[in-house]
Structures are given as structure tokens and as C-alpha cells.
Write a structure and sequence with these properties.
seven-stranded mixed beta sheet; four-stranded mixed beta sheet; disordered N terminus
Length: 496
């Protein structure tokens, strides 16, 4: 009997051990499954939100709202991208070469398709060139391009004038026809899609593109102030602000400054008054403290201009003909060499009243110019009157701003047909002719820069910056920059 009980208990112990072993084995299998599942990439189809203007077009060549234009860099690709140093990186294009000084031959990569599966062809590129030339977003920046022609798998871009950096202009979207839902079709990382009456962006399946964010919700927010508020309170996850208005203090989200090609300068009436004297124009430049103007008037959201060209442009980044700080003694010397009587050293400084940064800049410039011996009267005007006075020459100097194209072309200021060439006396200036010769390859860069620094037809002060704003809940190194706002979006996530 005792032996029978012992056997019974031994059987129970063996059964418990066996069950425990199974449980341990099953537990190991569950643990393995869990480990494997955590290594898989977790996708997100609801967290990331962008603003768009529903009343505006999503076609990149029709869109006028800035938020709709920003979306284009997700949906469309371009012949070339620009890096942050304004150097071209081939994209749809495989290579390029100048056939002559006004023709660029572009070879296209093979096998590129639009999001609907259709092949991207040379005819699509020509269509996009023509559409971009007529578009509100790109047209004014593409005056250096006159036309394009298609070949079997290549395109010739015809230029309006000789331009060694014209390939930098070929960063506009390449598009095709619309899909069945009326959305424009691109070859980018995402495509527009209608889900239950809501417009979203869906990730395209591409080699090397495996994002966390597979669906992007688009939120209809048109007003600029509303976009600022939406990013602050988390109704959208990301936006770009060009800081054309002083909104930086209103933004409480995470931020990243980006370089843009907006030149703020002193326009000079070179035709009449004391500013027709080149000594006075050089004195104005020497008196300006570019570091103070950048740090104080623009709160650091700008970079001092050391030449007419963007300091981040690689090919001219080492060029410096201006000091960052004022040289008041040298300015006084230039004034003395002008021979103009002290009683006549008065300047009217015209500024747009609707921009806080420019008004602050005018106040600083007044002080800096007065330190050099000038008397200065600031004339603040709202936009219509401000532009009217510039057109009529009712100023000595004015604070202006121009958005230069990505080829760094100065023709908007240094050509008679330029939209910012007010006050420049082209009949007496040599530097405008030297610039044209430099563009044609008939003049050394140094020759143009020497003529510019001597004649000083306008005074470059600084290049403004823009700002990428994004949710503090987002993770991932935000590497976006102007023109490629979502450069590494495949790495962005919400804490996964």
C-alpha cells in the first residue's frame, strides 16, 4: 500500500514536471515570437498631420498657397535636387553637360515610373518645364530658361542667356496627368489619395523607402496665423514658415532654421542726390554693421552677407568683400573723399512700415550712418506708398528684399529689366557689364567683384533664414531644408 502511494505521488510529480516543462517551452516560444515582432518596423498611419489649403490647387504648377507648395516635395521628384550648399545632386536626371553656353543636355535615368505605374518620359519633363515657366510658384525664378525639347531619353534645356549655374534651376517638380480622383501624379515618395472623402498622402512602395509614416493626414488650414497656432497646439505635426513676417516669437514647437535665398539690401538712388557719388555709396556700406542688423533686427534668423552672393553657396562661400562689423573710420574717410559739404550729408531712408524687422533695421542703420557723419530721416510707408516712392525715385536709400533664384543670378538687381533694379544708373556703371561678361565666361569672377566693390550699386546686408517647425512628440533627426523639406522623412516617427 505504501509502495502504491509512493508510486502515485511519483506519477503526480512527473506529471507536474512535464507540464512545467511544456509551460516553459511554450513560454520560450511566446517570448521568441514577441522578440521577433518588436524587431519589425512599426508603421504609423494616423499621427503625422500636415496643413493644406483646400480651396487652392494641389497641382504644383497651379498652387499659390505656401503649404500646398511645400507638399509638392513629397509627391514629386525633380531632375536635380540641391543640397544645403546649393550644389546639384542628380535625381530623375542621370547627368548633364553644356552643349554650348545656352543649351544644357540632360540624360534621364532609366526605369523611373509615376505612382500610377506609368513610365516617366522626356515628354513629361518638357511638359513640366513649360508648366513651371507659367506657374506662380516657379515662374519668376525661372526667367533664365526659355524652352525645352525632348529626345528619346534625354532633354535639351534652352537658356535665355549664358549662365554657368543654370542647372541649379532644374529643381521644379516633374509631373504627369491627373489620376481618376483628380489628383496630380508624381514619382515621389507619397501620392495623393481620397479615403472616405478625406485627402491624405499614402507612401509609395519604392526600393530603399520604408517609412514609419505610411499615411499623412491633410488638415485644411489656410490662414497663416492659424497654421502657427495649429503647430503650437499639436493639430498639425510639421510646417515650414518663411519668416517673411516676424512670427518667430509666436512659435513654441520644436524648430530648425533653414537657409533661404532672400537677400535683404540697401537700395541706393544712384541717379540723383549725394548717393550718385560712389564714395557716398561705399560709405553707406562701410557704416552698416551686418552682425548687429542680423542679431538685433532679425533676432539671429539671418546670415550677414559678405558679398552679393549667398554665403552658403559653395562656389562663392570663401568670397568676402564686406566686413561683418561696421568700419566707421573708413566710412568717414569715404565721406571726406567725396568732397560733399557736411551740411549736405543728409539721407532719406525709406522702409516698409508693415515689417517689424525692417523697421528695426532702419532704426539701427540710422544710428550707424549718423556715426559716420550723415543725418538720416526715416520715411516709413505702407506697401503701396513704399513701392510708389521707390518707382518714382523719392528716396536716397531704401531697405529692400529680393528672392534670388537658386543659380544665384543677380540679374533681378543688376539688369535694367530686373524687378529690383530701382535707382541703379546703368549708363554709368561698369559692374553690370562685367557681371554679364562673367556670366558669358568672358570675365573673371574677381574682375566683377572688384568693379562691384568700387561702384557699390546696392549694399547687400544679409540673407534671411526660414524655419521648419515640428511637433516635440516627434523622434528622428530632422534633416529637412529649403526645397527638400522632408529629406529623411523615412526616419521620422512618434517615439517608436
Amino acid at each position: 500500500m505504501k509502495i502504491r502511494y509512493i508510486a502515485f505521488f511519483m506519477a503526480i510529480i512527473m506529471l507536474i514536471s512535464a507540464l512545467a516543462g511544456c509551460a516553459a517551452k511554450n513560454g520560450d516560444e511566446d517570448m521568441t515570437t514577441t522578440t521577433e515582432s518588436t524587431t519589425a518596423k512599426i508603421t504609423d498611419d494616423s499621427s503625422f498631420k500636415l496643413s493644406f489649403t483646400q480651396a487652392d490647387s494641389l497641382d504644383p504648377f497651379e498652387a499659390e498657397a505656401q503649404n500646398n507648395q511645400v507638399l509638392a516635395s513629397l509627391v514629386f521628384e525633380s531632375l536635380f535636387d540641391l543640397d544645403e550648399a546649393y550644389q546639384v545632386v542628380p535625381n530623375i536626371a542621370k547627368s548633364y553637360e553644356y552643349e554650348d553656353d545656352t543649351t544644357i543636355h540632360i540624360e534621364l535615368n532609366d526605369g523611373i515610373v509615376f505612382s500610377n505605374g506609368e513610365a516617366l518620359t522626356a515628354d513629361d519633363v518638357v511638359y513640366s518645364v513649360n508648366a513651371a515657366l507659367d506657374s506662380p510658384a516657379y515662374g519668376s525664378l525661372l526667367t533664365g530658361i526659355s524652352s525645352a525639347s525632348a529626345h528619346e531619353n534625354s532633354v535639351d534645356i534652352n537658356l535665355s542667356y549664358p549662365n554657368p549655374y543654370a542647372v541649379n534651376l532644374l529643381t521644379f517638380p516633374i509631373s504627369a496627368e491627373y489620376d481618376d480622383d483628380g489628383f496630380p501624379i508624381g514619382s515621389g515618395r507619397y501620392h495623393y489619395e481620397n479615403i472616405d472623402g478625406t485627402t491624405v498622402l499614402k507612401a509609395n512602395k519604392q526600393d530603399g523607402f520604408n517609412p514609419y509614416i505610411t499615411t499623412i493626414t491633410l488638415v485644411n488650414i489656410a490662414a497663416s496665423d492659424s497654421i502657427d497656432n495649429a503647430i503650437n497646439i499639436g493639430n498639425i505635426s510639421y510646417c515650414y514658415r518663411d519668416l517673411s513676417a516676424d512670427i518667430s516669437k509666436r512659435i513654441s514647437s520644436a524648430k530648425k532654421l533653414v537657409n533661404i535665398n532672400n537677400l535683404v539690401f540697401i537700395g541706393i538712388n544712384g541717379k540723383y542726390g549725394i548717393t550718385a557719388d560712389e564714395h557716398i555709396r561705399r560709405a553707406v556700406s562701410l557704416a552698416a554693421d551686418r552682425t548687429t542688423l542680423t542679431d538685433s533686427a532679425y533676432s539671429g534668423y539671418a546670415t550677414p552677407a559678405l558679398s552679393p552672393f549667398n554665403p552658403y553657396f559653395t562656389d562663392t562661400s570663401g568670397v568676402s568683400i564686406f566686413s561683418k562689423t561696421a568700419d566707421t573710420a573708413a566710412a568717414k574717410q569715404e565721406v571726406a573723399e567725396s568732397g560733399i559739404a557736411e551740411s549736405k550729408l543728409s539721407l532719406s531712408l525709406l522702409v516698409y512700415k508693415g515689417n517689424e524687422a525692417k523697421v528695426a533695421m532702419a532704426t539701427l542703420l540710422k544710428s550707424e550712418l549718423e556715426a559716420a557723419g550723415f543725418s538720416v530721416k526715416i520715411d516709413e510707408e505702407y506697401y503701396k506708398s513704399y513701392m510708389s516712392k521707390i518707382a518714382d525715385g523719392q528716396y536716397d536709400i531704401y531697405i529692400g528684399e529680393v528672392k534670388l533664384s537658386d543659380d544665384m543670378c543677380l540679374y533681378p538687381i543688376l539688369s535694367e529689366s530686373g524687378n529690383a533694379s530701382y535707382g541703379i544708373d546703368f549708363d554709368s556703371l561698369e559692374c553690370a557689364e562685367r557681371y554679364e561678361a562673367y556670366m558669358a565666361g568672358d570675365e573673371e569672377f574677381g574682375g566683377f567683384m572688384l568693379a562691384f566693390s568700387e561702384e557699390m550699386p546696392f549694399v547687400p546686408l544679409l540673407y534671411r533664414k526660414g524655419m521648419i517647425c515640428y511637433s516635440k512628440a516627434m523622434s528622428g533627426d530632422m534633416q529637412g531644408y529649403y526645397g527638400n523639406f522632408f529629406s529623411n522623412i523615412e526616419n521620422w516617427n512618434f517615439g517608436t
